Amino acid sequence: MRYEKLSNEAVALALSEVDHWMLSEDQAAITKEFAFGDFTQAFGFMTECALVAEKMDHHPEWFNVYRRVDVRLTSHSVNGLTAHDFKLAATMDKIAARRV
Ligand SMILES: C[C@H](O)[C@H](O)[C@H]1CNC2=NC(N)=NC(=O)C2=N1
After folding, report:
1. Which of 76, 79, 84 best tests ligand 1's pocket when mutated (most atoms within 8 Å of CB)?
2. Taking the complete model, does pTM exceed 0.90, yes or no?
3. Are 36 and 67 in contact (CB under 8 A)?
4. How many angstroms does the Cα of residue 37 sit away from the middle of ligand 1?
5. Domain-wise residue ranges, the chain
6. Mean pLDDT in residue range 39-68
7. Nearest Cα residue to atom 1 of ligand 1
8. What is the ipTM metric for this complex?
9. Which atom from ligand 1 is nearest to the alpha carbon of 59?
């Protein structure tokens, strides 16, 4: 499914509905740093998210060191943010909540 690029107003509203995601400086992405108890938890989180992302055909940019996972979500197709990013963000929050 192709989602439209969100307006600044729509981004502000969507940001208020997810947990501690930040708008990137160029405003084309949202970012969040997740921290878990250990590497196994962090990697388990990434594994679960990867399966969801593949189903959505919407993939995170992320960086993992030990128990930390830095995530950046953006929609390459529109070079900005779409509802896909916020849907994936909310899902990642839910997956993390079962582990933190
Ligand atoms: C062909 C395939 O559907 C596209 O390349 C998908 C794959 N995953 C994607 N992931 C993200 N984050 N943005 C995209 O625009 C995107 N496009």
Report:
1. 76
2. yes
3. yes
4. 30
5. 8-98
6. 98
7. 57
8. 0.94
9. 10
